[in-house]
Specification:
Elements (H helix, E strand, L loop, with lengths): L6 H23 L10 E5 L2 E8 L12 E7 L7 H8 L3 E6 L4 H14 L4 H7 E8 L10 H6 L19 H4 L6 H11 L4 E4 L4 E3 L3 H11 L10 E4 L1 E5 L9 H9 L3 E3 L6 H4 L4 H6 L8 E6 L9 E4 L18 H9 L3 E6 L2 E4 L10 H26 L8
Parallel strand pairs: 3-4, 3-6, 4-5, 8-13, 9-14
Antiparallel strand pairs: 1-2, 2-5, 6-12, 7-14, 8-12, 9-10, 11-13
Helix pairs in contact: 1-8, 2-4, 12-13
Length: 396
Amino acid sequence: MVRGETTADIRKESENSDEATKFLRLRMAINCTDRDIVYEKKVHSNYWVLVNYVPAEHGSLRCSVFITYTTHGDYRYLNNVAPLVERWRAPISLALYAPGTDFNKTVSSILWLRQCDPQRKLIRKWVSFHIYFNANHIPRQVYNQQILLAKQIKCTKVPPFANVSSDELYRKQMELKYPINVGRNIAKEAALTHYVLSSDIELYPSPGLVNGFLLMLAANMHLLNSTRPLVFPLNIFEVSANSTVPTTKKELKYKLKTGQAIPFHRDIAPQFNIAPNLKKWIQHVDYSDTMRVFCVNKRIGYWDPIYIGTKQDPVYDETLSWEGMSDKATHSFALCLMGYRFHTLDNAFLVHRPGINQGYLDDERLRLAAHIRRKLRRQLLIEYFYKYGFQLGCIL
């Protein structure tokens, strides 16, 4: 033992060495190509996309030893970026829908986050912002990227995304539907890593999820060689408006016991959101906090999980909008038809930003949702059977 070196120091050094060895094995086993962040203008369906318009500053990274949180939104939801990146601390790929006059407010909001937010250093390091808009709703002015990145704003002003109602949005005034799955696909396509968590911007991950997941994979290399395609769902919860977001499963269990937390959309649409074996997952105690696979299932019923997967998993159906709901239904159906197995993770979870959803929906959205459900069963069901084949037990 070197003078001044404690047993704890030696143990920590040994653990770090062991972790590095595991990550090296993992890097060699995952077949992916490292890429740099590149800004590009491209056409995606009926949309113009500015990919990496405001890029993260993390520099080069290994595609095999990070996970990218891919997500979407409009500028009203950018108040979620700081708490999200603080818990994730890894690449985030965010696609923002900004047609017409929403573009300027979106850009101003991004600059405020990068220059003024208390978490601005983490935001600049990890978050890449992509902007997309309809080809027939182009903003009046699109800034040159270099000019935009050099622009300075006053941090004394209120954030442009603060207290914005939906009625103020250009897309609402022009009666444009929110193309949620276009955003999901753009963000996922722009990710530089092999593994991605395609999620919604208001869902906050438990801290340490990235490192814990990769160490779990490194300890279970057989999962990389599975003959069946697989993904890793995360159980999702809601907490009351005056509650903090739990960071560990132990803390989450306490909030569930005291009524401060509930399973996600328990009282609204449990058939789509309540995972198989959720009660057992909640009751199970693992004081090590080590991430592991809790259970393995096929897709059951109408369950639409959010999961860690890869960029090779199916894309989301861009004919579906947020207003019509059911926007993840065909994606989950495709996974079922393709024989995916769902390896639900323990000691890892997602929590919606504080405030339990009361489930109010206006009549117009309910009518549209009913129309979309008819479309799913009369048209898309047959299309997906033709595309992926028939599997007993898979429903849409």
